[in-house]
C-alpha cells in the first residue's frame, strides 16, 4: 500500500457552544504507530471517535486506507470504514466467549476458525479461547480486545487510552507486547494517551494535542528535543525554563553562554532538560543545592541560582556526592531551545 | 522558527471553553423516531376519546368537577396511592435485596414465591382477604370463643391498602432485582475500601444506583393502585375507578364518568411528573474496568431469622392465605356435588391473548425505550411520556374508548382479537417500558460501538449484541405483561370477541353471581399457569451470564 493509511484534514467539532476540536489534520504512513498525546479534555478522544465514525465532524475530511470515508458529501458509517477500535474499557461482549468475541467481526465464514486461531496465537492466548471475558485478567482482556479489533483485517486500528486500566507493573509489559503484536501484524495504529512516557516509548510518531488542536507532530525524540512551545516542553517531560538574552545563536543566561539552534534577537526563555545539566563541586560555585530526590537509577537535584531561580539537574549515579546547602557549578551539555519571551 | 508556534497558539480558545464531549452525539435515525412516534400516538388514542367525551358536556363539566363527592373521591385516591406506594416499595426493596445480595437460605425459592402475588387478580385476592380476616371471616370465627366480638373493619381504606400492597409489591421487587444485578460490585467495594460501613455504602452507593429501579417499580405500583378496579370494588373503597364504574352503570349521562376519568388522568400525569422530576440525570451504566462479575453476598448471620419471618409473612398473606381460601371454596363446591370445570377452551384463550399481548407490547416498548435512553431530547421525552399514557387511563375507559372508536371508525375491528391485543398493549406498555429502560440505561453504548466498528450493520448489532444483553430486562417486561394480561378484567370483559371466554372473565362472572366454588377452579389454573411462567423466567435469569 502506498500513500497514507490514515489521513485527516481540518477536522472540526463543536458540542453546542463548546469547541472540542479545531482544524485537526493528521497523516499517518502504513504500518506506523502514532500516539495522540494530550491532557484530559484536550479533544483527543473526540478525534479518535471521529475517525471511527461515532461522531460526525462539523467539517473536514477523513481518508482511511486510501478511501474517502468522510467529507461534505461522503459519509461512510462506522461498520464500513475498515477501522478497528480498542476501547478504554475494552467493551468485550460479556455474553460471548473469547473465540466468539474475536470471531464477531470476521465476515468470511469458511476461514473464520482459522483466523480466530491465528489471532489467539498472535496475542498468545491459545488456551483461553473458550473462556468468558469475566474469567480473564485485565491484561488478557486487553489482548482479546486487540485480537478482536485486528481479526477482520482493518486498514488501521484505534486504541483509546489502551493501558490506563492496567496496573503500573503490567502496563510497561503490556504496552511493549501490544507494540510487538501491532508490528507483527503490520497494521497502522493510532492510540490516545495522556501519559507522555507511554507515548514516547512505544510510538513511531507523536502528535501533541492542546485545546483541541494538534500543536506538534514528529518522531518521539524530535518532540522531546525540540518542543515547539513552552507548553509542549513542560508537558513532554521535565523542563527548566530560565530567562536569557539572545544575540543571533548566542544566548546569555544565568548558567552561562549557550548556543541555540535557532537565531533570534531579544529576550527569550531558555528551555534546558534536567539531564542536560551536570553539576560540579569545582568552579565558580554559582548555585546552591536545595533538595535531592533519589530514584535509584538516577537522582534529581534542585539548585538555586543567585537570582533566586531554581533549576533541576538529573544525574546518574550513587547518592552522597552532594549535600543540601553545598555550593556547586553548572554545565549545560546540549544546545538550548529558546522561546521569545511573552 | 521559534516564534511561529507562539503566534499559532495565541488565537487558540482558552482551556475553559473545552469540555468532555457529551454522551449523546448523533441525531436519532429517522425510522426510529417515526416508529416510536407512531407507538406513542397510538397509545394516546383512548385519551383523545376521553377528552372529546368530557368536553361534549360543556358547562356541566365544572358542576361535576367541583361536587363535594367528586373532591372526596379525589382525596380517597391520593391517600390510597401514597400509602400503597410507600408500603409496597419498602417490602419490594427488602425482598429484592435479600434474594439478590444476601446468603438468605432458599433465595431462589423466595425470589419465585414472593412474585406469586402478581398472578392473583386483585378481585380474587381481595375476596380471599375478606373471607379470611374480614367480618365473619375465618379469623373471627376462630377468635369468637375467646370473646372477640368484632375485628376492626377491613372494608374501606385498611382493606384496600392491605390488598393492593400485597398484590403490587412484586413490581418493585422484580424491578429492583434487575437493578441490583446490573450494579457494578467494584463501586461498593471501592466505597468499602474508603472506610465506609455497609450501612453507609447502602445509602451512598447502592441506593443512588437502584433508585431508578425503585422508582420504576414504585411508579408501577402507584399507577396500579390508581387504576385498580377489582380490589377497591370488593372492599368498597370509593376511589376513582369504583366511582367511575358505579356512575357508568347507574347513569345514562356519560359525561359524569368521563369527567371523573379525566381527573384520574390528570392525577396520574401529576405522579408521572413527580417521578420524572426526581429521576435525575446521572448516567448509571457500568463505567468500570473490564467485564462484569457478580457481587459478593452479604452474610446475614442471626438476622436470617427475622429475614425468613419477613419473607414468610409476605408469602403467607400474599399467596398462601388466598390460595387456601380458594381451595376451601373448591372443596365446598366439590363436596356439594357441583360441576366445577368448563373445559380447556378458556385456558387456551387466556394464554393466547397473554402471549400475543406480551410479545406485541415488548416489541412496542423497545424502540420507545431505545429512543428515550440513547437519544434523550425533548421530542424523545414527549414520546416516552405518551407511551406511559396507558396507565393514566383506567382499563374500563380504555375499553370504552376503543369500543366507541371502533364502532364509529372501524366496525371490522369491533370485538376483534386485534383490537383486544391493541388495548392490552395500550394498557401495559409502561410495564415493559420500565424494565427495558432500566436495563438499557445500564448497558454501555461502547458495546454497540464496538460491534459497529467490527463491521456489523446496526440491525445486526441489535440482533447479536443489544437484544442478548437486554435479555434480563426484556424477559422481565414480557413476564410482567403476560401476567397482568391474564389477570386483566375490564378490557377483556368489554373487548373480547363474543364467546371468547377467558379465565379472568369466568372468575369475574362466577364471583359476581356469588358462585365462589365456580370461580375457584379457573382461579387455581390461572395461578398455576402464571407461576410456571414466572418460574421459567427466573430460572433463565439465574443462568444468565451476569449471575
Written account of the structure:
The complex is a heterodimer of chains A (342) and B (547). With 342 residues, chain A is an alpha+beta fold. Helix content of chain A is 22%, strand content 38%. Chain A has eight helices and 18 strands. Chain A has helices at 44-52, 98-103, 112-122, 138-150, 168-185, 196-202, 220-225, 230-235; strands at 6-15, 18-28, 33-38, 59-64, 67-70, 83-86, 156-160, 188-193, 205-210, 213-218, 240-253, 256-272, 277-280, 287-294, 298-304, 310-316, 327-332, 337-340. A six-stranded mixed β-sheet of chain A has the order 6-7-8-3-9-10, with helices on both faces. In chain A, strands 13-17-14-15-16 form a five-stranded antiparallel β-sheet, with no helix packed on it. In chain A, strands 2-1-4-5 form a four-stranded antiparallel β-sheet, with helices on one face. In chain A, strand 15 and strand 16 form a beta hairpin. In chain A, helix 3 (112-122) crosses helix 4 and helix 4 runs parallel beside helix 5. Chain A is globular, with a radius of gyration of 24 Å. With 547 residues, chain B is mostly helical. In chain B, 72% of the residues lie in helices and 0% in strands. Chain B contains 24 helices and no strands. Chain B has helices at residues 4-10, 30-43, 45-55, 60-65, 68-101, 107-113, 122-133, 138-143, 157-182, 185-193, 198-227, 230-234, 240-250, 255-277, 304-335, 345-374, 378-387, 395-409, 417-441, 445-453, 458-487, 490-495, 503-512, 516-543. In chain B, helix 7 packs across helix 15 (304-335) and helix 16 packs across helix 21 (458-487). The termini of chain B are far apart. The relative contact order of chain B is 0.13. The chains are: A alpha+beta (342), B mainly alpha (547). The interface between A and B is large, with 66 and 46 residues.
Amino acid at each position: 500500500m502506498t500513500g497514507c493509511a490514515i489521513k485527516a484534514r481540518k477536522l472540526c467539532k463543536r458540542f453546542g457552544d463548546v469547541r472540542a476540536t479545531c482544524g485537526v489534520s493528521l497523516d499517518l504512513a502504513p504500518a506506523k504507530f502514532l500516539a495522540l498525546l494530550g491532557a484530559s479534555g484536550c479533544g483527543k478522544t473526540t478525534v479518535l471517535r471521529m475517525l471511527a465514525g461515532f461522531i460526525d465532524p462539523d467539517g473536514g475530511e477523513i481518508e482511511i486506507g486510501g478511501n474517502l470515508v468522510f467529507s461534505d458529501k461522503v459519509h461512510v458509517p462506522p461498520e464500513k470504514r475498515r477501522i478497528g477500535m480498542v476501547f478504554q474499557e475494552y467493551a468485550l461482549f460479556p455474553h460471548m466467549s473469547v473465540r466468539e468475541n474475536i470471531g464477531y467481526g470476521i465476515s468470511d465464514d469458511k476461514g473464520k476458525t482459522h483466523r480466530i486461531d491465528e489471532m489467539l496465537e498472535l496475542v498468545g492466548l491459545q488456551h483461553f479461547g473458550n473462556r468468558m471475558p469475566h474469567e480473564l485478567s485485565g491484561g488478557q482482556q486487553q489482548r482479546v480486545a486487540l485480537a478482536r479489533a485486528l481479526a477482520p483485517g482493518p486498514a488501521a486500528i484505534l486504541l483509546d487510552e489502551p493501558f490506563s486500566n492496567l496496573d503500573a507493573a503490567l502496563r510497561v509489559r503490556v504496552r511493549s507486547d501490544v507494540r510487538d503484536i501491532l508490528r507483527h501484524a503490520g497494521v497502522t495504529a493510532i492510540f490516545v494517551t495522556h501519559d507522555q512516557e507511554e507515548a514516547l516509548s512505544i510510538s513511531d510518531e507523536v502528535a501533541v494535542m492542546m485545546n483541541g488542536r494538534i500543536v506538534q507532530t514528529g518522531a518521539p525524540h524530535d518532540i522531546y528535543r525540540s518542543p515547539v512551545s513552552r507548553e509542549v516542553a513542560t508537558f513532554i517531560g521535565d523542563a527548566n525554563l530560565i530567562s536569557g538574552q539572545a544575540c543571533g545563536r548566542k544566548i546569555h543566561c544565568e548558567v552561562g553562554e549557550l548556543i541555540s539552534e535557532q537565531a533570534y534577537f531579544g529576550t527569550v526563555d531558555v528551555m534546558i532538560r534536567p539531564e542536560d545539566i551536570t553539576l560540579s563541586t569545582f568552579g565558580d560555585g554559582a548555585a546552591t543545592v536545595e533538595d535531592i530526590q533519589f530514584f535509584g537509577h538516577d537522582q534529581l537535584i534542585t539548585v538555586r541560582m543567585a537570582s533566586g531561580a531554581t533549576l533541576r539537574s538529573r544525574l546518574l549515579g550513587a547518592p552522597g556526592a552532594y549535600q543540601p546547602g553545598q555550593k556547586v557549578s553548572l554545565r549545560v551539555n546540549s544546545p538550548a531551545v529558546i522561546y521569545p519571551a511573552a | 522558527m521559534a516564534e511561529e508556534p507562539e503566534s499559532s497558539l495565541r488565537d487558540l480558545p482558552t482551556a475553559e471553553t473545552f469540555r468532555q464531549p457529551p454522551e449523546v452525539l448523533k441525531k436519532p435515525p429517522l425510522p426510529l423516531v417515526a416508529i416510536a412516534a407512531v407507538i406513542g400516538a397510538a397509545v394516546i388514542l383512548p385519551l383523545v376519546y376521553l377528552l372529546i367525551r368530557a368536553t361534549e358536556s360543556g358547562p356541566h363539566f365544572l358542576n361535576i368537577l367541583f361536587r363535594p363527592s367528586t373532591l372526596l373521591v379525589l382525596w380517597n385516591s391520593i391517600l390510597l396511592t401514597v400509602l400503597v406506594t410507600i408500603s409496597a416499595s419498602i417490602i419490594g426493596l427488602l425482598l429484592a435485596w435479600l434474594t439478590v445480595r444476601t446468603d438468605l437460605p432458599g433465595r431462589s425459592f423466595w425470589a419465585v414465591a414472593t412474585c406469586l402475588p402478581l398472578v392473583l387478580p386483585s378481585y380474587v385476592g381481595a375476596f380471599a382477604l375478606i373471607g379470611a380476616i374480614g367480618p365473619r371471616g375465618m379469623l373471627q370465627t376462630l377468635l369468637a370463643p375467646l370473646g372477640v366480638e368484632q375485628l376492626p373493619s377491613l372494608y374501606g381504606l385498611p382493606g384496600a391498602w392491605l390488598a393492593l400492597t400485597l398484590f403490587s409489591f412484586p413490581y418493585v421487587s422484580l424491578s429492583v432485582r434487575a437493578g441490583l444485578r446490573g450494579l457494578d460490585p467494584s463501586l461498593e467495594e471501592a466505597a468499602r475500601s474508603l472506610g465506609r460501613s455497609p450501612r453507609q455504602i447502602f445509602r451512598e452507593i447502592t441506593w443512588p444506583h437502584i433508585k431508578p429501579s425503585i422508582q420504576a417499580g414504585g411508579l408501577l405500583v402507584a399507577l396500579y393502585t390508581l387504576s385498580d378496579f377489582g380490589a377497591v370494588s370488593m372492599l368498597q373503597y370509593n376511589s376513582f375507578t369504583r366511582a367511575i364504574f358505579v356512575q357508568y352503570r347507574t347513569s345514562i349521562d356519560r359525561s359524569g364518568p368521563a369527567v371523573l376519568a379525566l381527573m384520574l388522568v390528570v392525577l396520574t400525569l401529576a405522579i408521572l411528573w413527580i417521578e420524572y422530576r426526581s429521576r435525575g440525570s446521572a448516567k448509571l451504566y457500568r463505567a468500570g474496568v473490564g467485564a462484569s462479575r457478580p457481587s459478593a453476598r452479604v452474610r446475614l448471620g442471626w438476622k436470617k431469622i427475622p429475614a425468613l419471618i419477613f419473607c414468610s409473612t409476605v408469602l403467607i398473606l400474599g399467596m398462601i392465605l388466598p390460595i387456601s381460601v380458594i381451595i376451601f371454596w373448591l372443596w365446598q363446591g366439590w363436596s356439594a356435588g357441583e360441576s366445577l370445570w368448563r373445559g380447556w377452551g378458556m385456558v387456551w384463550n387466556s394464554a393466547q391473548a397473554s402471549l400475543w399481548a406480551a410479545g406485541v407490547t415488548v416489541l412496542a416498548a423497545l424502540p420507545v425505550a431505545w429512543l428515550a435512553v440513547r437519544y434523550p431530547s425533548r421530542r424523545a421525552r414527549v414520546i416516552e411520556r405518551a407511551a406511559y399514557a396507558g396507565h393514566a387511563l383506567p382499563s374500563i375507559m380504555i375499553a370504552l374508548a376503543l369500543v366507541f372508536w371502533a364502532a364509529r371508525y372501524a366496525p371490522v375491528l369491533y370485538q376483534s382479537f386485534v383490537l383486544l391485543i391493541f388495548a392490552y398493549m395500550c394498557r401495559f406498555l409502561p410495564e415493559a417500558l420500565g424494565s427495558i429502560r432500566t436495563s438499557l440505561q445500564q448497558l454501555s453504548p461502547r458495546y454497540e460501538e464496538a460491534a459497529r466498528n467490527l463491521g456489523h450493520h446496526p440491525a445486526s448489532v441489535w440482533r447479536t449484541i443489544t437484544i442478548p444483553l437486554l435479555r434480563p430486562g426484556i424477559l422481565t417486561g414480557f413476564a410482567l405483561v403476560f401476567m397482568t394480561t391474564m389477570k386483566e378484567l375490564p378490557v377483556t370483559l368489554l373487548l373480547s370477541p363474543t364467546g371468547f371466554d377467558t379465565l379472568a372473565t369466568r372468575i369475574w362472572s362466577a364471583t359476581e353471581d356469588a358462585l365462589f366454588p365456580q370461580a375457584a377452579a379457573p382461579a387455581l389454573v390461572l395461578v398455576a399457569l402464571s407461576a410456571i411462567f414466572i418460574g421459567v423466567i427466573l430460572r433463565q435469569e439465574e443462568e444468565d451470564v451476569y449471575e
